[in-house]
Write a structure and sequence with these properties.
Elements: E1 2-5, H1 8-19, E2 29-32, H2 39-50, H3 57-61, E3 65-68, E4 79-82, H4 89-93, E5 95-99, E6 105-112, E7 115-116, E8 136-139, H5 142-153
Length: about 160
């Protein structure tokens, strides 16, 4: 098990958890995470060192489950529009999301970042298939999702 931390408070909490409840359950390593995309590389190395040294990166990634909080650098955004697929498979099969004044449209779809890692199309060239999304990530602060859905998407206060 890897516990990533970003500041001194999280480091102390991770150390307490590793020494307490997690101590008898799993091999536990507490690591500093500077950037969002570095954790999966560390997790792959940890997997190979502690579980299966013969696994290739893809095989190891498919065995990794990340539990996270959405919005670590500010307000969580679970549901958002994805309109970056111009010229790609998902850009071709999605419906128009934005109609511009000049008559052109931007295609896209609504994406929910509750769990990340398995696109239904899985185009091998897509930037959404980056190394840190090939494992499965589940966000644990789902109470923030409920608030966002009620306020932003359903119009309730």
């Amino acid at each position: 098990m890897i516990i990533a931390y970003h500041n001194a408070t999280e480091e102390k909490a991770a150390g307490r958890f590793a020494a307490g409840p997690a101590a008898g359950l799993a091999a536990c390593e507490v690591l500093r995470e500077e950037k969002h995309n570095e954790l999966m590389g560390k997790a792959i190395n940890f997997f190979k060192e502690t579980i299966d040294p013969s696994a290739d990166d893809f095989e190891a990634k498919r065995q990794i489950l990340c539990l996270a909080r959405r919005g670590g650098k500010g307000k969580p955004e679970f549901v958002d529009s994805f309109t970056k697929g111009a010229g790609t498979t998902c850009g071709e099969w999605t419906r128009p999301m934005i109609r511009h004044k000049d008559g052109t449209v931007t295609k896209g779809f609504m994406k929910a970042a509750v769990a990340v890692g398995f696109c239904p199309v899985e185009c091998p060239f897509c930037y959404l298939q980056m190394p840190y999304t090939d494992g499965m990530t589940i966000n644990l602060n789902l109470e923030d999702l409920a608030t966002e859905l009620k306020k932003k998407w359903m119009g309730y206060d």
